[in-house]
């Protein structure tokens, strides 16, 4: 094997390209409880732009606010809202009533727009940031209220426990080593694997050659901007595909356990912080989410009908696109719901409109509902928790109001 190929392999394995290894390096948590229903919570880290994922194309102001971001394709949902084209493979779920959205929701977090604080409040399920934020998560408190939940019914796989499951309820953690050192013998073994699959061998050889050429040319300074950008884009596409495979691997790992005794699972998908070139950045994150949802659907089989998936993010993004082709940290956003247990093919929520007077601080989508309310009703309908338990313990201070009825 030549030097350039060895260099590429070392770089690739250092990045962790193996989809099979993804459950070992990504935080995943599971819980087994005495119920036949399943709840999957996917935390979308980085503040997903709900206006791009579930776009209000029916509002003429939207294209004025986002002249660049509305040039791409969208899939019509209900004549007013449309699905980002990068999630287009989810349309069969929408048509089957197994995909839905909630618009104009947020946690009670306001104004500071810090990813760290926003994610902490999202996972803690609290209204304000204080000393209690990092003490417990809302799923942990929910488990403590379910009769029959056992000491080993919740566990975490990954390098750290997600805050959403941290607390007094016992949780078992496992953080395996994921370091990979590539020896010459390992490189020869990988070549042998390539040779057994002609299609993979050809793709692998192309990728290694491309990466090696880019790396060597950059070091030697004999690459022009156009060629460098082209090869860099191809490498980004490869990484995006690998990330989607990793998300699918996570979902497969979760589905296998959900088909057994596990009734709750949570993991995260990052990459939603889209300050610039949002058309590119959101594509990668969307492909990961799409892969995870489709894998859950395919792998869960009949259990899918008893499953509710909630995709939550720390806050939304600004209504107007910025000068870098992206959007900045905002307030109101969207939730994504999936699963055979939901009443999909609907965009839930009280839509506030996009007039300047209707915007939060004349820049953000105005939140009209606390997303904790929707998660609370999921706990109520799926696992039988009372409204009083949810308002006092699971989500202290939340007002559940009337059941939005998004579960079958």
UniProtKB/TrEMBL annotation:
InterPro entries: DUF1501, TAT_signal. The lineage of its organism: Bacteria, Pseudomonadati, Pseudomonadota, Alphaproteobacteria, Rhodobacterales. Transmembrane segments: none annotated. It comes from the Bacteria. This is Twin-arginine translocation pathway signal. PANTHER family: BLL7424 PROTEIN, DUF1501 DOMAIN-CONTAINING PROTEIN. It comes from Neptunicoccus cionae.
């Amino acid at each position: 094997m030549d030097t350039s190929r060895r260099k590429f392999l070392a770089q690739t394995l250092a990045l962790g390209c193996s989809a099979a290894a993804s459950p070992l390096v990504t935080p995943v948590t599971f819980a087994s409880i005495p119920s036949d229903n399943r709840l999957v919570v996917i935390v979308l880290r980085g503040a997903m732009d709900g206006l791009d994922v579930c776009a209000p194309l029916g509002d003429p102001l939207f294209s004025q606010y986002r002249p660049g971001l509305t040039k791409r394709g969208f899939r019509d949902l209900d004549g007013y809202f449309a699905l980002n084209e990068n999630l287009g493979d989810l349309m069969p779920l929408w048509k089957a009533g197994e995909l839905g959205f909630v618009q104009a929701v947020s946690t009670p977090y306001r104004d500071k727009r810090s990813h760290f604080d926003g994610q902490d409040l999202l996972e803690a399920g609290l209204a304000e940031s204080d000393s209690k934020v990092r003490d417990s998560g809302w799923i942990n408190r929910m488990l403590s209220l379910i009769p029959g939940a056992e000491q080993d019914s919740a566990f975490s796989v990954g390098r750290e426990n997600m805050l959403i499951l941290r607390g007094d309820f016992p949780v078992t953690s496992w953080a395996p080593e994921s370091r990979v050192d590539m020896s010459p013998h390992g490189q020869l073994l990988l070549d042998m694997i390539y040779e057994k699959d002609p299609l993979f061998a050809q793709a692998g050889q192309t990728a290694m050659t491309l990466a090696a050429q880019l790396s060597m040319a950059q070091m030697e300074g004999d690459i022009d901007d156009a060629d460098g950008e082209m090869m860099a884009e191809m490498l980004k596409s490869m990484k995006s595909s690998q990330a989607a495979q990793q998300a699918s691997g996570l979902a497969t790992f979760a589905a296998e356990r959900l088909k057994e005794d596990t009734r709750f699972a949570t993991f995260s998908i990052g990459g939603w912080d889209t300050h610039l070139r949002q058309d590119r950045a959101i594509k990668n994150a969307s492909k990961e989410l799409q892969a995870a949802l489709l894998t859950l659907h395919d792998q869960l089989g009949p259990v899918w009908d008893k499953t509710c998936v909630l995709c939550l993010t720390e806050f939304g993004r600004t209504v107007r696109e910025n000068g870098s082709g992206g959007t900045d940290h905002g307030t109101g956003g969207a939730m994504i719901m999936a699963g055979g247990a939901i009443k999909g093919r609907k965009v839930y929520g009280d839509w506030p409109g996009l007039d300047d007077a209707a915007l939060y601080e004349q820049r953000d989508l105005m939140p009209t509902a606390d997303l904790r309310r929707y998660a609370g009703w999921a706990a109520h309908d799926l696992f039988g928790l009372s409204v009083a338990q949810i308002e006092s313990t699971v989500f202290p201070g939340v007002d559940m109001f009337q059941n939005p009825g998004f579960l079958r």
